[in-house]
Amino acid sequence: MAGEGQSPATRMLRRQNSVIESLSKAQGQSHPVRPPSARGTDACFHCGEPCPDDAFARDEKPFCCLGCQTVFSLLQENGLGQFYELNSAPGTCIRAAAAAVKWGFLDDPAVREKLLDFADERQAKVTLHLPAIHCVACVWLLENLFKLHPGIGRSLVNYTRREAAITFATDRIQLSELVALLASIGYEPELTFGEMEKPPAPLRKKSWLQIGIAAFAFGNIMLMSLPAYLGLDSLNGPWFRAIAGWLSLGLALPVVTFCASDFWRAAWWSLRQRVLTLAVPIALGLAAIYGQSLFEVLAHRGPGYCDSLTGLIFFLLCGRLFQQKTHDRLTFDRDYKGFFPLAVIRKTAAGEESVAISRLQTGDRLILRHGELLPADARLTEGEACIDYSFVTGEADPVTRTAGDHLYAGGRQIGGAIEVETIKPVAQSYLASLWNHDAFRKRRNDDLDSLTNRYSRRFTVLVVGIAFTAAAFWIFSDASRALKAFTSVLIVACPCALALAAPLTHGTAQRLLARLNIFLKNAPVIERLAGVDTIVLDKTGTLTCADARGVEFQSAECGLPSEASGRRMGARSAELSMDEAQWLASLTRHSTHPHSARIHQALGAAPLPVDGFRETPGGGIEGEISGRRILLGSRSWLERRGVACRSRGNEALPEPGEKSAPPHVGSYTCMAIDGRFRGTFVLANTLRPEVGQLLAQLGGRFELALLSGDHVHEAARFQKLFGPRATLRFNQSPAEKLDFIRALQKSGRRVMMVGDGLNDAGALKQADVGVAVVENIGAFSPASDVILDAAQLPRLAQVLKFSRQAARVVRTGFVISALYNLVGVSIAAAGLLAPIVCAVLMPVSSATVVAFSCGTTLWLGRRIFASLTQPEKISTPAPLLEPAVKLVEAA
Amino acid sequence: MSVIIILILASLAVALTFLGGFIWAVRSGQYEDTCTPAMRVLTEDPAGAKPDPLSPKHSKKP
């Protein structure tokens, strides 16, 4: 099918791909013809990973593993080869995907029913979240899924949400088979416990309809009012005026009732709560305008103000839509359920079976394999557990447990399979109990305390006061003028400009921050950010991270690893020769264990082919490279294989699980070449870059505190970073973190919590502003107000400064609109306001505020963030633009 | 004089047609996802390549 009948777009993409290929060949390879099994760095045709040799090559295309090659063949056979023409190496590496998961539990009627959008006897529709979707080719492949299986019908991808809605014939393919098929081609759906209870995504149909109808009515009424403004209506006699008036009233009716329904509802709600929000004067103004128009048309006095009324509602709706910018990929209110898998493996008399977490009962015996998560509190019955609680407690090192020990929900097993017996239901386990705290029950009302509403309370009282005074003043001399003055004041004072100032400033600021990979839950968060005076930070995962910089190699020749003698990998330790580095890089590339991945990243050498690669879960990895047998793993595993892990000083190395004294922080991995102990890799958590600078910037203005679930061994180091006044707390449980924040708030502080894991979830929720730091936008993050790309953490001080300036812009916007109102109201109170003045004043005041808010916010944002470099990853639309950008560059 | 009435009614009728079109577009979900359709135009499918949305019964390609 890769023939003549291709569209220009496809041809362009092909040409672009060939340009990229030739470029990469020119840079990477000096030999034009690659000898078989030589040191090669060809990129896998499917996923773009470097390939060590030709072992998996097919159709003269290199592949890095059997998985990628299989997907390629499958797509070729089914006429889906175009996938590779749409983008270079568009696939997801199959080797890196998790081990085969049993999807049988998906056919459980209870699970099935919750996942399916729709089902009848013949077919069903399911919407799956596929995080691997990343480019045009993915969209194309998933929408052509029907070519892979006769039971699959139409599939529709939503790129921004990373979702695919798939229709399938229930008699031909089971849901489990469909999911298995998706996983086999690299699009494993994210099926978590939380997914089952997720409410359907809110539709924006109503907002669009409201705006469209308001715009329609606004335009048409304006057309009919124009003759009246220009004095042309008298040419046609009084009947024209009457018809125009009636038509305007008719067109404005759906706008007032349907389009403005949310404003009426908000005003009614605020009156019932006995709080004056901005919705009250808006509703008063709208009612006054429509009432006045109705009166004028009925009494044949004039055309009314329906044009201003519909225009006002249209602008207000536009402002609201602008503010309601949502980030489809992100979820700001996830709880522990989003972290739990949908099913676990249960051991029964008959054998093993997958069981949905919602059906788990106390006393069930579960089997947890490497990397799997414990969903409920349990007792270990068999096997040696090495549990990583880092996401729950913030403790960096995994802990070792033996049979009979109590395990808490949320821990992740590292190593071999273990067997546990659940002792508590999922909803009452250690992790879940945090969500039963009342901090999660009360819903914070962002609206009531906002700047706009504080201002509008005084404003409303003032306006109503003036309206009544004006009416009272005129009522004795001129009764009709009294009514006119009363309504005119309400109409002119209708806070359109005021209502636009905050949404536009916030909306603009939100967009600007989103471009820097800083995502706000909603616009009022900006205001709360501006009010922050205390910043509480989590340690593990927030200030520190596990990356290649923390990897140190310690040769067996020099005793125990320590900060003084250990050398950084980046500095090309003389202890590890170039060849050794290359062997290790080649070996670690085959394992998905986090330690392997970090060591591989730190070494960064070109891969060589590995023979006889084997991974022992919980032990280590081994393989033969260039005739050398290399073992990499835990000390006990190496010793079991006959390697004496002794350094020259004959000191024993500490076990990975043991609590080590400083400065030996982190995990250890031992390495042996040809049966001889060679040395140890120390994998430490290191401070993120620029953290010191950030803390120095923040320290001057804010009170700082550190809350860590980790032990105290780094207290001195952090006290130095945070300054002498800062409070540092270690060994904090999630509930203690929450209480700490609450205590700060009770003493009148406005607290910002910066954290990353579920252990911070309570504190993030309780804090005035919760900031979740994530390594990967779109990956799991606990409920928070702000989701911050970890790379942007150094910008936190700038973000806070920007939000303070944005709040100042809103206040200035209020002053501008107040000045307009002052002029308008003084004319109106005199009862002199002509319709033409009213019609001009209203849009002009709105336009001024719109231009001022957006313009100033953009300018301030540019000034603050311009000095900093742009992030490498740009949010959503980037993959779409990439081909075009590359094309331009290639040209 | 009545010509202006006819004109107004005619222009309103045209405007209402467009409003109807807009309402149909919104209700059929075209405003829910404004990103993916832009990506779809980059790919190209021969006519008849899409399956029938209601009956996913078609033979597997050789």
Oligomer: heterodimer
Strand content of chain A: 15-25%
* Helix and strand composition category of chain A: alpha+beta
Shape call of chain B: elongated
Q: Which regions of chain A are unreliable across 5 or more consecutive residues at pLDDT < 50?
A: 1-40, 559-574, 648-665, 869-891
Indicate the radius of gyration of chain A in whole angstroms: 33 Å
**What does the largest sheet of chain B look like?**
none
Q: How many beta-strand elements of chain A?
A: 31
How much strand content do the residues of chain B show? under 5%
Q: Estimate percent helicity of chain A.
A: 40-55%
CATH C-level label of the largest domain in chain A: Alpha Beta
Q: How many distinct folded domains of chain A? A: 7
Q: Could you name the CATH topology of the largest domain in chain A?
A: Rossmann fold
Distance between the termini of chain A: 27 Å
